[in-house]
Amino acid sequence: MGEKVVASRADLSDRQQYRRKLQSCLEALERMLREGRFDRPKAMMGLEIELNLADEQGLPVMRNDQVLSAIGSSDFQTELGQFNIEVNIAPHRLTGHVFEELREEIDTGLRYADRQAAEAGARIVMVGVLPTLGVEHTGLDAMSHNNRYSLLSDQIMAARGEDIALDIEGVEHLVLDSVSMVAEAAATSLQLHLQVTPDRFASVWNAAQAISSVQVALGANSPFLFGRELWRETRPVLFQQACDTRSAELKAQGVRPITWFGERWVDTPLELFAENLRYFPALLPICDDEDPIKVLASGGVPRLGELRLHNGTIYRWNRPVYDVADGVAHLRVENRCLPAGPTVADTLANAAFYYGLVRALGEQPRPIWSRLPFDRAARNFDTAARYGIDAVLAWPKQGRAGRGALTEVPVVDLVLGELLPLAQQGLDEWGVQPSDRDRYLGIIEQRCLRRTNGASWQAATVHQLRERYGMDRGAALATMTRRYMEYMRTGEPVHSWPVA
């Protein structure tokens, strides 16, 4: 959720000043884009993985402060709920044996963190939603001790003017009349960053939007929430409802939610930052003392602090990011639609598929976004979240005969027949070693052939425990979670896990 905020509620009072600062930041960004004041091309990628904390019985543990203290590494940081932490992976150049290097680095770091967490009575779990988490674990007293979270919660509740309600209908139906914003912390994500030049930004962002449905279908790992079996990837709908600043009347008026797929393809990165200012009131209107126009005039690189803070409170599934590293400005596309886990190997398979596919699709002469209407891409995203690896998506037909036409295709057939070869091509263009390419795209292929991902494994295991062994719901969820933790630690990808 971004960097720490040190402020009091009094600092939130001057929205007009903040609005002026945001506009100044946008003008500075526009000038920087026009004058080419950005980093030269670099194939740089980065990952963030949000993690859950559970005990040996698979039940939530509210001790992230103690766990982080035991880990003692700045790579691991707090998250919204006391049952969450996050690990940030240093940027890597997207070439060579990058995925094997990342596997070793992440695996070593997580195994160390898990051992240290055990000293605080917790174990680390990579899963989209911890299956044993109950609504009783998500009250305000479960919020992490970070000023940003309490301020953000206050602002969302003030904007709504009423309690947060959840109403999610999937395999089962979950209705809760009142929850805190901490309910959103149940959703833990994998965030994939790709540094891009301004000229390539729009093609990468558009490609990422087009394939986000496929990513969610293949990577779904969140079928249970608060004891109910809902969507195969429940995180998106949970995130939208738990962070919604709109009353029922504002929804009826068509006001956009801050958890947002978007509504159109773009031609420049400036369009997305401008939309964020135009459509969304500030949730954390905290100003710093920088004058970005003066900084530019003096030859400096502005931080654009207000723009970055505002941007961080709008939860696009593909978020535009402005940042400064080593005194040089750059842009990134942050892909946020995937859940955490189930294993490091699965995580890197998801990453390899994404990075390869956005490279190949972004360079096609007739790009996917010229053939797929944006509203169908948005509907695909919801369909993929509901049905996971069994989803059927609308997709442009291949070949001249299918020009302009869409067809309904099972996502596994789409991946095996069209998208995997494109992902392979894209990784080759990045310069990724064939051994890395084949290993991690092979995991995606096996998921499709076996129609098995984290969500389908979780659901099948719970159903078997209940039907064959007569367990009640709570016992089945806890037993499944313990098995999940055991198999996760083996590092073997989820398609190979036994259900029995």
Explain what this protein looks like in three dimensions.
The chain is of the alpha+beta class and 500 residues long. It has 16 helices and 15 strands. Strand 2 and strand 3 form a beta hairpin. Helix 13 packs antiparallel against helix 14. The mean pLDDT is 94.
Topology diagram in text:
Blueprint: H1 15-35, E1 44-54, H2 64-71, E2 76-78, E3 84-93, H3 98-119, E4 123-125, H4 147-160, E5 164-169, E6 173-179, E7 189-196, H5 198-219, E8 224-225, E9 228-229, H6 235-242, H7 248-252, E10 259-260, H8 269-279, H9 292-297, H10 305-311, E11 315-316, E12 318-325, E13 328-339, H11 344-362, H12 374-387, E14 392-396, E15 406-410, H13 411-430, H14 434-450, H15 454-469, H16 473-490
Parallel strand pairs: 10-11
Antiparallel strand pairs: 1-3, 1-4, 1-7, 2-3, 5-6, 7-13, 8-9, 12-13, 14-15
Give the tags:
alpha+beta; single chain; 15 strands; 7-stranded antiparallel beta sheet
